[in-house]
Amino acid sequence: MKKSIIFSIALSLGAFSCSDDFLTVTPETALSSATFFKTESDFIQAVNSAYVPLRTLHNINSHLLTEQHSDNARYVRNVLFGATENQSNLADFNVPTANGITTNGNVLTAYRQNYLMIARANQVLALIDAATIPDATKKNVKGQALFLRALGYLDLVRYFNKAPLQLTPVGNRSEAAAALGTADQLYAQIIKDATDAVGLLPAKSVQEAGRATSGAARALLANVYMIQKKWADAETQLRAIVSSGEYSLMPNYADAFSNSTSNKNTRESVFEVQFLEGSAGLNGNFLYSMLPFPIAANELVTITGTSNPQPLSGEGNNIPTPDLIEAYETGDKRKDATIGYITLGGALHANKTFPYIKKYARPHALHNNHGMNWPIYRYSEVLLFLAEALIEQNKLADATPFLNQVRTRAGLANTTATTQAALRDAVYQERRVELAFESKRLHDLVRTGRLETVIKAYGDRVKADKFRYYFPSEGFVPSDAFTNITPYYGLPAAEADLSPNF
């Protein structure tokens, strides 16, 4: 499969139409499912397009919804600019929600982009079995489409706990307004798709870099089993990844994350979203949404290294909280690799020095245009998932070596925890610092049942000392802050207007 996964056809494949009437003559010059899906190249291009929404989802969206909407990250209030409510509401846990519906724009983006990915995967899956293309390509393309559909539904069920279950191409608006699937129904479909993908996809060592692999499908499947507390099933999938010999930890934690033009899809990478620096429209700019504002050009260039730095104003987002910073043990090498500091001369705050997310700060050529990939699953998470699954089965001696592999790479001594409860807490701690700012924190708090307790205590700390949490003296903590601590978002209001099922 020679074509790059970052190639995107300029068509919305979910909108292609199909007809069962063989007497209907479709002009050969009209692009539709009747004329496009014929060759091996057509199907490769089609599955390429199903990857594309991942760039939107993880360029800005996911870390606002899962990291800033947790105790890991906050925003830097600029009272001259005013509040960016879609972002600050996430950090303050006061997202406007009524009757299970919200107007938050970031929630809407997550919903629509995941369904765009699902729609494109559905179009491939509807036609791939009948395609007259090489069997190896057919299996690979089908496996990728199944993986991406499963990944999209995993996002949706974790955000909303319910969503329309669409498994075939949608031809019109009435078909799009499907009934809401329950969490159990969505998870059952994700398990089916991911299981099928495991059997169809090749291993990482023989797959084109950046595409879904059997290991990535196993990681996704294990993730679902962890959510469902099916510990033995999760263990089976995770041990298969470990024993495959396809993955290992990078010796240096900072090297687990890509540079703008190099160090991508390493031995530690199980699956990551591909970005490409340059003018092709495949670049990212998520680093620029992870900075405190206002920042002058001469300050910004110390982080980005660009030839044309430009000042940025407004409200800074995804700023590491003091709570996260203090969670690192003394001597943990991950702390310096994850968090940097910068002093902003134009800040309206008494303390003008702010932390920022350093793990993605890689030099690149031009302002607001970089190519760092975004990690979805890393091998370190596989190890921590496996340790957790074993701990929950009370296989404590088996669990600790996997936990200690992660700690050893971080420069830390082996865990001193020995009881099931202590080891469980040790894994939670490692997940927080190892996977910080990788769109994991909210989901971890929800699946382990700790969201309300952790966020309520965190909210009390924010309200007690606003300056410590990046408010200027003129700023104020909203009166309704931390009044909407719920495990799931409301469904998007803009979609509710189009469906009778919300």
Automatic annotation (TrEMBL):
What SUPFAM superfamilies does its record include? TPR-like (SSF48452)
Q: Which PROSITE patterns match?
A: PROKAR_LIPOPROTEIN
Keywords of this entry? Cell outer membrane, Membrane, Signal
Record flagged with keyword Membrane: yes
Which subcellular locations apply to this protein? Cell outer membrane
Q: Does the keyword Signal apply?
A: yes
SusD-like N-terminal domain boundaries: 21-226
Range of residues in the leader sequence: 1-17
Q: Which CDD domains match?
A: SusD (cd08977)
- What InterPro entries has UniProt attached to this entry? SusD-like_N (IPR033985), SusD_RagB_dom (IPR012944), TPR-like_helical_dom_sf (IPR011990)
- Which residues does the UniProt record annotate as the domain RagB/SusD? 351-497
Similarity field: Belongs to the SusD family.
**What protein is this chain from?**
RagB/SusD family nutrient uptake outer membrane protein
What is the organism field in this record? Runella salmonicolor
The taxonomic lineage of its organism, from the top, reads:
Bacteria, Pseudomonadati, Bacteroidota, Cytophagia, Cytophagales
